[in-house]
């Protein structure tokens, strides 16, 4: 009896596996993992120095560990475009997917579908609100980054009073939201500095420039701007340049793109909070490999941040982001 039951159970399992392989189980719409040595990186956006630097770190680590890593980047930081990239993995899901979700809620369903087919998920940089689908999540401590930006601004202005604008990207972006909150909470500790609120720019430099132009017109005592990522920073610098206000309004940027670093040298930015995207990519590959090799995996990891000013920039050039590997 036992033998019959065992054989029956095995037969059922075989049918289930075959169905799974042809994409018929769980409505996942794709095949199951065939190659455990393949990794895919889906960053937030193509041709952008933060993600290029992350890709460089990930590629070097994958090579070292004997994995292949391919990158498939959406043209813009946009959940619909990123979903297309995730869905395209359907016929050939990788052993692990390293992904920077562009929306903390909308990206859950497509990522879950890939996970259902056996792919290990590692979040790099941004994260979903419900991160349980990921075996590991690696990011800068963005709340602390925002706090560091506020402290840096307070130090720069000394006791002077004035208003401060925060430029965020797109609602639902976990990283920039945490930076804006960390900044706003910390700024509240300085009675001489008053926040005039957080404005969204859709991650478009042109929109950031326009918000700065409007804030300069409506708020004559504007003393500082916190730009929560490189696109908002580059746009804010353009806004200040157009209005002839460079150096009069303190601009604290996040990230260290070639254009931001150049702007710091020219005095357009007073400080940059640089991340270490190459380390995030490297650690992402390490965690993916550990998961695939059944070794211990760390659920959440934090990468360091660096406050860079004109005075210390030459000693910190290792944190400048790359345009190519
Ligand atoms: O600041 C980075 C990244 O950390 C953020 O999640 C989105 O924007 C950047 O890629 C810079 O553009």
From TrEMBL:
InterPro entries, from UniProt?
Answer: Peripla_BP_I, SBP_2_dom
Q: Which Gene3D superfamilies match?
A: 3.40.50.2300
Subcellular localization, as worded in the UniProt entry = Cell envelope
Q: In this protein, which residues make up the domain named Periplasmic binding protein? A: 40-295
The positions making up the signal sequence are 1-27
Q: Which Pfam families match?
A: Peripla_BP_4
Family (UniProt): Belongs to the bacterial solute-binding protein 2 family.
Under which name does UniProt file this protein?
Answer: Substrate-binding domain-containing protein
